[in-house]
Design goal:
By secondary structure, this protein is α/β, with parallel strands linked by helices. The radius of gyration is 19 Å and the shape is globular. 41% of the residues lie in helices and 15% in strands.
């Protein structure tokens, strides 16, 4: 029987860390466990530490739990710079090194999963383990894509050129940040509609009101694809847990699972009846799978 997710009335209070001259917001909860690694939770595109509130409250009974707003999102600063997987990789690595103080199990959803993978693959000294929840990011194409018909190719070229323009990306941002648009988007990517609350909509809406938010949106929209996932997996040495919301309309979980297993067959994975954000939609299930994997398998235990 499916249980109704426990909703925290308010986000857990956090604090700020200065990184490269910018304020970065983070949350910490739970006691340090010498025999267990800390957890670092990393949100997806447009989200923040607020998106992990149900997981922080559930997991901090057994772990020291940290959550961070990537630069450009949530309560963190939104400078006018180029945003990329490399930037967030370095932010997370430096945070683990200077604030957490020991290797962490990184858990990321969507864009946050890709950033976490970049850390675990390219800064392995920071990662005790890796948990990817409907993780984003590109794979190398085995062969060139077939040539598009001339009209389709022309339309695609015009669209790409259009959204390189500040005014066009600004208009798209203004549409995407409306509360009604946020709600409709969430209702498409959550199987359990009751999990799409006014609080969730507001938590995603509020950071979009920050002065730098439109420029962040434009930069992320225009950033070239980062390092390919298969190349990152070839560098990975950490234990890997993959959690898939199998009802995700934005990605074919079964197909992506097969690609991950092809390049990293020693992973552990579970499919969950949920959409793109199972950690928020069915937090009790996700918390239990994370808890069991780390404790039962002795992840990060020296």
């Amino acid at each position: 029987m499916q249980t109704t997710p426990t909703v925290t009335a308010a986000p857990i209070p956090g604090t700020y860390w200065q990184w490269r001259g910018h304020s970065v917001y983070y949350v910490r909860s739970g006691d340090r466990h010498p025999e267990r690694p800390p957890l670092l939770l990393i949100h997806g595109f447009g989200a923040s530490t607020d998106h992990w509130r149900k997981n922080i409250s559930g997991l901090s009974k057994d772990f020291e739990v940290w959550a961070i707003d990537l630069l450009g999102f949530g309560r963190s600063a939104k400078p006018e710079i180029q945003y990329s997987g490399d930037l967030w990789r370095d932010q997370l690595h430096d945070f683990i090194t200077s604030v957490i103080g020991r290797p962490a199990v990184l858990a990321g959803n969507s864009l946050g999963g890709y950033a976490a993978l970049c850390v675990a693959a390219q800064r392995p000294e920071s990662a005790a383990g890796l948990i990817l929840i409907n993780s984003a990011g590109p794979f190398s194409e085995p062969q060139p894509a077939p040539e598009a018909p001339p009209l389709q190719k022309a339309i695609s070229t015009v669209a790409k050129t259009l959204f390189q323009q500040d005014w066009a990306s600004f208009l798209l941002f203004q549409y995407a940040r409306q509360r009604s648009t946020i709600r409709k988007t969430l209702e498409k990517v959550y199987l359990d509609q009751s999990a799409v609350t006014d609080q969730l909509v507001e938590e995603i809406y509020l950071p979009s009101c920050d002065p730098g938010a439109p420029k962040v949106f434009a930069s992320v929209f225009r950033t070239p694809q980062g390092e390919k996932i298969d190349l990152l997996l070839s560098q990975l040495t950490s234990p890997l847990l993959m959690l898939w919301g199998e009802g995700d309309p934005w990605m074919n979980s079964a197909d992506r699972s097969a690609k991950f297993r092809q390049h990293y067959p020693q992973l552990t994975e579970h499919f969950i009846k949920a959409g793109h954000c199972p950690h928020d939609e069915v937090p009790e299930q996700i918390n239990e799978l994370i808890r069991g994997w780390i404790i039962d398998k002795g992840i990060g235990h020296c």
